[in-house]
Amino acid sequence: DTAVSQTPKYLVTQMGNDKSIKCEQNLGHDTMYWYKQDSKKFLKIMFSYNNKELIINETVPNRFSPKSPDKAHLNLHINSLELGDSAVYFCASSLAALNYEQYFGPGTRLTVT
Amino acid sequence: GQQLNQSPQSMFIQEGEDVSMNCTSSSIFNTWLWYKQDPGEGPVLLIALYKAGELTSNGRLTAQFGITRKDSFLNISASIPSDVGIYFCAGENQAGTALIFGKGTTLSVSS
Q1: What is the per-residue pLDDT across B65-83, written as a single tens digit (0 to 9) for each?
Q2: Would you tell me which residues 29-88 of chain B have a C-beta closer than 8 angstroms to some C-beta of chain A?
């Protein structure tokens, strides 16, 4: 059983489109995260949710909107996609908000053309 | 802002060699973690350190939390081809709400 899963694995789309990435964890964790990894492999936190509530929103354009229907799911919706959004997006989870042992999903490679 | 500086940026070694990489910062951290990322996969937690001076092993991996709380190192002994990947250090941000990652050390192992 996969602990943290993301769909899709690959996403190729055109500028201006709207797309969503889904994330699910079956670890019973309370906290979930979205990270962006750029072409130089730099990992940066975007959002964090604890028990369905937003606790971190780093300086991310408001075209990015996370949604957590329940504590096992954290989806990322991106409006009006731009070339610079091309990256690998990772979902992660941890037991609690102040528990730093985070478990990552396999990533979604987003390519905007 | 807080930054983690990892070195070296990349390493090319022979199978069987020992490897050492480190992570430094001008800021104090209360937690240091080491992750490994295989190509096309997400980072996987290797070792978590919570106390200054702490030395922790996980198989052939050993990591230490520096006494000053501003650095950590990771050693890999007797490297094997499957050790190939990117190794990231991470620490908690000042608010304690998220992890900050270093830029990674890319390890290549030739057999």
Answers
A1: 999 999 999 999 999 999 9
A2: 31, 33, 35, 37, 40-45, 48, 86, 88
